[in-house]
Amino acid sequence: LKVKVEDTYSRAADGGTGFAKCGGNYGGAFYPTQLAREAGYDQVIWTDSKTHELIEESGTMNLMFVINGTLVTPPLSGTILDGITRDSLLAIAKDKGLKMEVRPVNVNELKQALEAGQKVEAFGAGTAAVIAPIETIAIDGKEYTCYIAEDAMMYQLQKELYDIRHGNAVDNHHWNYII
Ligand SMILES: *Cc1c(COP(=O)(O)O)cnc(C)c1O
After folding, report:
1. Is it the case that residue 20 has pLDDT exceeding 90?
2. Does the Cβ of 80 fall within 6 Å of ligand 1?
3. pLDDT of 140-159, one tens digit each?
4. Which of 42, 43, 156, 157 fits as disulfide partner to 1, beta carbons 3.0 to 4.6 Å?
5. What predicted TM-score, i.e. pTM, was given to this entire model?
6. Residue 141 to residues 7, 30, 45, 118, 163, Cα–Cα distance (Å)
């Protein structure tokens, strides 16, 4: 995906319904997403509605990064949906002993890491695609390239979740039900 960090519009605000899969959340996303499409992007990275400095989600997916080998994702809040895919990938990362941090991610931090040429993976997490690799992120009008090569951590996480779903890996958490 090619995405841009949204610095004007927001998907959800404190005191609203952004944490839930609620139809009303999606109406406000159409116009900014359309503007992003017209500018050549697939979707936007949502930031907090007050400062636009903290990264929240991308499109209708939770957003995760791998920065210098550590899986990083923002903590749940009233404006971030509590996605099952995010939760599952965090559980898998923990099982595998991967380094992970659930903490606020500042747009500037991301920009600095990309500008310094650090290896940054960025991907959306949601039921539909499991993971959606992000190749390009525009911040303040400048485009940066993320790491999407085959040995990226995101594919390892995706494969493990796929294997658990298909009965090809041990289902430690009892996520599957035989019906
Ligand atoms: C559906 C959705 C997600 C992902 O949730 P899953 O439970 O993993 O499918 C994340 N953010 C938003 C805004 C969503 O609508």
Report:
1. yes
2. no
3. 999 999 999 999 999 999 99
4. 42
5. 0.96
6. 10, 20, 13, 19, 39
Q: Any idea how long the chain is?
A: 179
Pocket of ligand 1 contains residue 43 by CB under 6 Å: no
**Residue carrying the six token digits 């294997």:** 163
Helix (H) or strand (E) holding 46: strand 43-47
Listed in sequence order, the residues at least 6 apart from 12 whose beta carbon sits closer than 8 Å to its beta carbon are 18, 19, 25, 46, 49, 56, 78, 79, 80
User: For ligand 1, is residue 60 a contact (CB within 6 Å)?
Assistant: yes
For residue 43, the surrounding DSSP H or E stretch is strand 43-47
pLDDT at 85 over 90: yes
Q: Could you tell me the pLDDT band of residue 128, with boundaries at 50, 70 and 90?
A: confident
21 lines ligand 1 (CB under 6 A): yes
Instruction: Quote the CA–CA distance of 39 and 89 in Å, as a whole number.
Output: 31
Which amino acid residue places its CA nearest to atom 11 of ligand 1?
Answer: 61
Residues 6+ apart with CB under 8 A from 137: 3, 4, 5, 45, 110, 114, 122, 143, 144, 146
Q: What is the mean pLDDT of the chain?
A: 96
